Amino acid sequence: MTDEQTIDPQAAAAGAQEAAANAQFNMQRIYTKDISFEAPNTPQVFQEQGQLEMKMNLAQRLDSMGEGLHEVILTVTVTGLVNEKTAYLCEVQQAGIFQITGMNQQQEAGVINVLCPNTLYPYARATITQLVAAAGFPPLVLQPISFEQIYAQRMQEAQQQEAGAAATGDAE
Q1: 8 A C-beta contact, residue 152 and residue 113
Q2: DSSP assignment, residue 135?
Q3: CATH superfamily for domain 23-165
Q4: Which uninterrupted H or E stretch holds 29?
Q5: How far is C-alpha 43 from the chain's CA centre?
Q6: What does the DSSP assignment read for 136-149?
Q7: What is the pTM (predicted TM-score) of this model?
């Protein structure tokens, strides 16, 4: 005799709704943690002929503060180069304190890696734009970033690495 288990679809839906109702995301505070601007080759760089080349790097750090509170720090570094000389180096650490509760580990990771940087990036972008303009350089417009796409790509790379490690482990 087999042991069958029936699932009541209404009860399952009610459980999912209850879990969703308990999930919370709140911004407690948004602030600039650190700003750095350097123009090491001024004033000579203003006399250089050539196009300004931009390089941008992103980094994110998470510090758990306990009881569902997390400090998320998004670091945006922009380097402006003219003829391979550094015109400026601008780095902004935009941070926020977020309360994230009632989510499973996968949902929380998605919120931390997508929703939090989506919230912080516009503030960092505005600060960088103001700093570059105040330093006398041409206006800088940083394009929007798809943190959803970045997170999906990182998850896919992690899965490929796990699959590669598993295949290597099986081969031994």
Answers
A1: no
A2: T
A3: SecB-like (3.10.420.10)
A4: strand 24-38
A5: 34
A6: TPPP--PPP--HHH
A7: 0.80
In terms of DSSP H, where are the helices of the chain? Answer: 9-22, 105-110, 116-134, 147-171
pLDDT one-digit tens code per residue, 77-128: 999 999 999 999 999 999 999 999 999 999 999 999 999 999 999 999 999 9
Name the DSSP class of 112.
I
| Tokens 């912080």, residue located | 120
Cβ–Cβ under 8 Å, residues 103 and 17: no
Q: Are 32 and 127 in contact (CB under 8 A)?
A: yes
d(CA 16, CA 6): 17
Q: Beta strand pairing status for 24-38 and 52-66?
A: unpaired
Q: Are the CB atoms for 30 and 122 separated by under 8 Å? A: no
Supply the DSSP symbol for 51. P
CA 12 vs. chain centroid, Å, equals: 34
Domain boundaries, the chain: 23-165
Contacts of 143 (CB under 8 A, 6+ apart): none
Question: Distance between alpha carbon 105 and the CA centroid of its chain, in Å?
Answer: 17
CB 99 within 8 A of CB 72: no
Question: In the structure encoding, which two tokens stand for residue 90, read together?
Answer: 């601008």
Element (H, E) at 115: none
Q: Give the CA dihedral 132, 137, 141, 142, nearest 10 degrees.
A: -50
